[in-house]
Amino acid sequence: MSELLKKLRNAIVEGDEEQALQATRDALDSGIDPVAIVSDGLAAAMNDIGRLWNEEEIFLPEVVFSAQIFKECINLVEPALLGGKSTEPAAHFVLGTVKGDLHDLGKNMVGTMLQTAGFRVHDLGKDVPAERFVEKVKELGSALVGLSALLTTTMLEQKRVIEALERAGLRDRVKVLVGGAPVTDSWAREVGADGYAPNAPQATEVAKKLLSELKEGGNA
Length: 220
Ligand code: B1M
What we know:
Layout: H1 3-14, H2 17-29, H3 34-54, H4 60-83, E1 92-97, H5 105-116, E2 120-123, H6 130-140, E3 143-148, H7 155-167, E4 174-179, H8 185-190, E5 195-196, H9 200-216
Parallel strand pairs: 1-2, 1-3, 3-4, 4-5
The structure holds CO-5-methoxybenzimidazolylcobamide.
C-alpha cells in the first residue's frame, strides 16, 4: 500500500483530522485511484477502529470522532469518484440502513459507488423502517433495493423489509441486495434476498447483474 494511504489510515485511527484531510488531498493530487483511497485508506482505518474498540484500546467518543473524520474525507473523494461516472444503467436504487441501526459509513460508500456506476440512488438514510422502503418503491414503480445492517440484532430487519415488499405485492418489481459487516451470502439466501455483496465495489457489480435480471423479467 502507498505511504500516503498508510498516512491517511493512521491519521483517521489517531483522530488527527487535519492530517487525515491533508493526506486525502495529497492522495488525490498524486493520482491514486479514488476507489483505492476509499477502500485501502478510509475503510481500512475504520476496520482498525473496530479492532481497537474490540480490544478496549479505544472508547466510544474516539470511534465517533474517527467516524466523523471518515465522513469529511469521503466528501473530499466523492467528486473524484463521481468524475468517472458511467452514463449507464440509470436505474433507480433505493438504499438505506435498516431500522434500529445507526451505522451509515459503509452504506454511504455503497451509495457513492453505485452513483459512480450510473445508478440513480435514493438514499433513505439510517434507521429506516420497512414501510419507508415500501413507500419509495411504490413511488418509483420498480427499483433495486439495498439494505445495510451492521448489527447482528438488526440483520433480521432485512428479512422484515423483504416480507413487507411481498405483502405490498411489490416483490416481483424489485431486486433486493443485502450487505453489512455481519451479513453473509448464506444469510442473504436465508432471508430471500436476491443478492449479497461484502463491500462497496462488489455491491456495484452485483447491482448491475440484478438490474439485468430485473430487465429480463420485464420489470425495469
Ligand atoms: Co458500532 N458496532 N455500535 N458504531 N461500530 C460495530 C458494528 C461493532 C461490530 C463493534 C464491535 O463491537 N466490535 C458492534 C456490533 C456487534 C454486533 O452486532 N455483533 C457495534 C456496536 C455494538 C455498536 C453499539 C451498540 C455500541 C453502543 O452503543 N454500545 C452502537 C449501536 C447504535 C445503533 O446502530 N443502534 C454503535 C454505534 C456506533 C457509532 C455511532 C459510534 C459508529 C457509527 C457511526 C456511523 O456509521 N455514522 C460505530 C462504528 C463506527 C462502528 C465500527 C467501529 C465501524 C463500522 C464502520 O463504519 N466500518 C464497527 C466495527 C466494525 O465493523 N469493524 C462497529 C467502516 C465501513 C466502511 O464498513 O460499515 O462494514 P462497513 O461497510 C462495508 C461493508 O460492510 C459493506 O460495504 C462497506 C464498504 O466496503 N456494506 C455493504 C455495508 N453496507 C452494505 C450494503 C450493501 C452491500 C455492502 O448492499 C446494500
